[in-house]
Amino acid sequence: MKRIQYYQYGGPHLMRLEEFELASPNKGEVAVKVKFAAINPIDWKLRAGQMKIVTGKTFPRAMGMDISGTITAIGAGVTRFKIGDAVFGLARFKQSGALGQAVITKETFLAKKPDAVSFEDAACLGTPGATAWNGLVDKAKVTAGERVFINGCTGAVGEAAVQVARMLGATVSGSCSAGAMERARALGAQTVFDYRTTDLSTVQERFDVVYDTAAAMPRALGYRLLREKGRFLDLEPTFGKFIRAIFSQRLKVVVCTPTAEILDRIAQAATKENFRLPIAETVPLAEAIALITALENGRKLAGKALVSME
């Protein structure tokens, strides 16, 4: 089998498509034959060493987080799945490995793929869906009738956040590029601002939650847009922000933390409420390094980038 891996932290030139031997799943783990993997910015951030305090110094390291596929082996104690089940979800954060023909991951990082959802669509849901849920439900505890502003509302996490906020009964506003504004409105955002031409500090409306899914909004601006007792969700965790969040009711630092319950809820939403993320481009595994490199260097897509393993 083949996967994308690297032998030291650094730039895109370090990625290699190579053969590897899949380990056997340990307790609570499963082996997945990957059908599709979705590319996320976290993939190259991990390879660049931005989280090496967590990922460590063992090489080669595999790449990729989001998958869809079928279970081929189960470890001791696994109860959620059996061999042959169609699933979607995430690879283990430290080990990664979604950008390959097979991967080992935790059973709690997966959900059964609904029959009504394609493997392509399912591969897109893991990181964006879990991150949106972690922010809006776990951190901000959004309730029906609240007003939510999503900065970057047509990025992957942004689009997931618009849909999750609408599922929770919130009224959604947001910012994105001019060319994506209609897509944001189609998802359920009522008021949408072009981030290139609108000074958000002049927006008069105030919100219960501001979710900076673009990780580009100054915290002072986010606070300015909040109502009293509003919550600002920050997707760029640093040690200093975690410390500030301990003493602040406003600042909530969001880290993607998938759970079985969250992924099951996303699966239900994908079936009943048409929870989807658009797919812009799909390439075979042999062309994945070139696409990852282009995206890392600034290429923009109007949707998710997928890698097909077949």
Question: What's this model, at a glance?
Answer:
Pfam families: ADH_N (PF08240), ADH_zinc_N_2 (PF13602). InterPro entries: ADH-like_N (IPR013154), Chloroplast_QOR (IPR052733), ER (IPR020843), GroES-like_sf (IPR011032), NAD(P)-bd_dom_sf (IPR036291). The chain has 310 residues and is an alpha/beta fold.
List the helices and strands and how they pair.
Blueprint: E1 2-6, E2 16-19, E3 29-38, H1 41-47, H2 52-55, E4 61-62, E5 66-74, E6 86-90, E7 102-106, E8 110-112, H3 119-123, H4 126-139, E9 147-151, H5 156-167, E10 171-176, H6 181-187, E11 189-194, E12 207-212, H7 219-224, E13 226-234, H8 239-247, E14 251-253, H9 260-272, E15 279-284, H10 288-296, E16 304-308
Parallel strand pairs: 9-10, 9-12, 10-11, 12-13, 13-14, 15-16
Antiparallel strand pairs: 1-2, 1-4, 3-5, 3-7, 3-16, 5-6, 6-8
Structural key phrases:
310 residues, alpha/beta, Rossmann fold, 2 domains, seven-stranded mixed sheet, six-stranded parallel sheet, 10 helices, 16 strands
Structure characterization notes:
The chain has 310 residues and is of the alpha/beta class. Helix content is 28%, strand content 29%. It contains 10 helices and 16 strands. Strands 3, 5, 6, 7, 8, 15 and 16 form a 7-stranded mixed beta sheet that branches. Strands 11-10-9-12-13-14 form a 6-stranded parallel beta sheet. Strand 15 (279-284), helix 10 (288-296) and strand 16 form a beta-alpha-beta unit. The longest helix is centred in the middle third of the chain and has 14 residues, at 126-139. The chain is globular and about 55 Å long.
